[in-house]
Amino acid sequence: MFGSDDITWCDSECSATNCSRHPHNMKCKTIPHSYAYFKNTEYCPFSKVEVTTQERGWAGHLICGASCLFRRNTLVTCDNVKWVVSTVGGLPSPLDRGQMQTIGANRWYETMVFESLYDEYDDADVKKQIEFESDWCICGKTWEEVEEKYGKFVDKAANEMHEKVVDEIKKKIKEAYINAKTSDPV
Questions:
Q1: Phi and psi (nearest 5°) for 60?
Q2: How many C-beta atoms surround the C-beta of residue 98 within 10 A?
Q3: Short-list 149, 130, 124, CA closest to 138
Q4: Among residues 45, 48, 28, which one has the least CA distance to residue 37?
Q5: Residue 176 and residue 11: Cα distance in Å, rounded?
Q6: 10 Å Cβ neighbour count for 185?
Q7: Residue 101, class by beta-carbon neighbours within 10 Å (0-12 exposed, 13-18 middle, 19+ buried)?
Q8: How many angstroms separate the CA atoms of 137 and 160, rounded?
Q9: Which H helix or E strand runs over 35?
């Protein structure tokens, strides 16, 4: 365990080793990053980092996304880092009234994640895709196969898929933010 001699303060106003007013100023001399020592403690400089989400009403990706009956676009923000989670699907066929068409190879719904363009609307920068582990598509050779698997609840399954990705991305964006803030030695 480290003692008070291992801790310095970058704020000359406060030098108490148990200060709860200035934990963000605490630095550990023997570990390159304050975060490495104070991780998961009340003194962690990132313990209060907030991740927010904002639901938006337009498709975040896919050239025909605006024609999809199912569209979810969630902006996930951690300080100045912004990522877009986009799920689209349920694309009506323009040729066969009442029929659905795929949005990709045997894909009827899909979720993708992108960095923000950091424009007026924080739209998805589709050239900067973010990888994730969660399920990302609802697939089937035919629409009937998809309906057989999910019944009338295909949109519900797509919604649950989107939510799982958002949950994963919320953790991942916070990690990315913390890694960016702690990458330079103290």
A1: -90, -15
A2: 6
A3: 149
A4: 28
A5: 26
A6: 7
A7: middle
A8: 11
A9: helix 34-38
Count each helix (H run) and each strand (E run) in the chain, helices first.
3, 10
10 Å Cβ neighbour count for 23? 18
> Which residues of the chain form beta strands (DSSP E)?
7-9, 26-28, 51-56, 70-78, 81-89, 91-92, 100-101, 107-116, 124-129, 137-139
Rg of the chain taking only CA atoms, in angstroms: 22
Query: Could you tell me how many residues make up the chain?
Result: 186
Domain ranges of the chain: 4-48, 51-177
- Please name which of 113, 65, 124, 57 lies closest in space to residue 89, comparing C-alpha atoms: 65
Q: At what angle do helices 154-182 and 143-150 cross, to 10 degrees?
A: 90
pLDDT digits (tens, 9 = 90+) for 24-61: 444 444 333 444 555 556 556 666 789 999 999 899 99
pTM assigned to the model: 0.75
Predicted confidence at residue 21, as pLDDT, reads 40
